[in-house]
Structure formats: C-alpha cells, structure tokens
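The authors assume throughout that readers already know how a fold can be written as discrete tokens. A single example would do more here than another paragraph of explanation. An entry of this sort, consisting of the sequence and the corresponding backbone structure tokens, reads as follows:
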Amino acid sequence: MVAGRGTGVRYVYDFEDWWEHELLVEDVLPADPARRYPVCPDGERAGPPEGVGGPPGYAALRAALADPTHPEHAVLTAWVGPGFDPDAFDPGRVSTLLRRFC
C-alpha cells in the first residue's frame, strides 16, 4: 500500500520495451476539502511517445530532437508532432489522468 511518506510503488509499463517507473510519496498533507484528489503537485519531463522503442529509443529521440544537425532530426520532429517538448511536465494533466484511474 502506498500510504505514508517514504512509501512508494515500482511498476513496469510495456513489458516489451520495459519502461520501469517508480513513484515515491515525499510528503503527506492534511486533505483540503476544496481540492480534488489525487493530485500530482510536481514531476519531471514529458512522457515518451508510444512506440519510441523503450529507454534506448527515447534517449536516441531526445538526442536527435536536441540537435538540428542530427541526420534524423527532421524525420523524428515530424513523427512526434509540433509542440512536443521532452522536458515539459504538466502536473495538472497528470492529476486529471490520475483521477480517471482512481
């Protein structure tokens, strides 16, 4: 059970590409009756696009997107679509998605 500070869960998404995720409860605060739960207050980086090829494929994608002279830059930029920022994180969107599963 994920219940208190310092507890967490580790899980694998997509057994073929083996995306391993670890969630850690950093703090537990009293509930605010005016707020919807669960809530994700912060995080790091965007989720990788589907079909990127696991962690090695995502590392290659990030390298190609960051370097306009990379031979795959144009193709991969078109593949991920306009506006994809691998360093962006939207805690509001994550909170909304969490609520759909709880």
